[in-house]
Amino acid sequence: MSCRVILGAQWGDEGKGKIVDLLSAEADVVARYQGGPNAGHTVVLDGRTFVLHLIPSGILRPGVRCYIGNGVVVDPEALRSERERLVRQEVDVDGRLFVSGSAHLILPDHRVIEQHADSCATTARIGTTGRGIGPAYTDKAGRVGLRVTDLMDPGIRRERVEQLRDRTLRLAGPGAPVEPLSDVLARCERDAEMLRPMMVNVSAEIDAALRSRKRVLLEGAQGTHLDLDHGTYPYVTSSSAVAGGACTGVGIGPTKITEVIGVAKAYATRVGHGPFPSELPPEIAGRLREEGNEYGATTGRPRRCGWFDVVALRHAVRVNGMTQLVITKLDVLDEFEEIEAVTSYQLGGNRLSEMPESLGDLERAKPVTERFKGWKAPTSGARQWEDLPREARRYLDRLEELAGAPIRLVSVGSGRDENVRREATPRETQPIPR
Ligand code: IMP
Q: Residue 368: which H helix or E strand, with range?
């Protein structure tokens, strides 16, 4: 039996899709625990690209059962089109994909609220994905949301949809571009039919899987610094992306978790607004963006780029209780003469080794970096630790040392086999120097 959590250690877009796919080979069950169609997990298999927004990346491994947990907000329209796309790409989905009856729904009105209500003008201020995520989670916390199970009851569904319409018109104004209510209700009826055969009690199913000694993988979306509680608030998403969110997001207790695997890119990116202490000026950022194809999988927006931020990573190691680290996209740095990593922040006369909680302090904090000689050699052919250039190993060793979590896997290309696995080192049993 194992219950691994895999999550983003940075600001999302760490390349989790590929790693979840890889770890799914060692799993019987994969469950998404938070977020919604704001996520974009890209997996490349035999030259074919799959982009998943809501459906767990485990769906690409035949035989793996996939669940969408109660912590996810489900847009039925997005789920339908993603499912159809997978079927067109010859992925077997039927009988393998299940949705929690307690998951909340994103309705078209949530998108209208996000885009047109002044009081929730988060699209512009925060730079949201515009998928209705914030308003759907707001309704959940406000106890007026519509869950998958509620959708099955025509009375409840009508009542909640009508109440939501009242809120939409109040928040976004009487001229808001809403769909006629009758269309929304007809759409809900179709959605109920689609979701009915998929609806299960995810908590009970995962518990049963663990009791029968199955291997469970809990898949996070976004990343630690976009977490509602532990991210760079208010420039965050509206769900719990951290490991604790995995427990509430599928309905299991923390004692069941056996491993927490954090995924971080060999540098850093962020989409949307908000503090990003290691952000680089346009010239170097542009080089990272082009080499790493750093454009959003969901919105196509260019990502902001920066050096690896060890202060931010240490925060992620701590709040997640991370037991191991996966570094992705090392190959993107192959041609850089010099690489830097942020090891502390300077704020006025103080040197900080922790991320400040104050947004103002975080915005004012200046990065202090350590420099590394680039390796100027291709890494995508490496499969063993020793295959990596000496300078690349030195860079990774130092990140590991500063972060306080062992690096067990390094991804050196988008292909399923382009990875370097690293066995546990004696370092793991020794205290990590600070
Ligand atoms: P929302 O999740 O659409 O409300 O967006 C809130 C913030 O999280 C914005 O800065 C988005 O750009 C960011 N965000 C949401 N989902 C992702 C993701 O999957 N990857 C990276 N950033 C994301």
A: strand 366-373
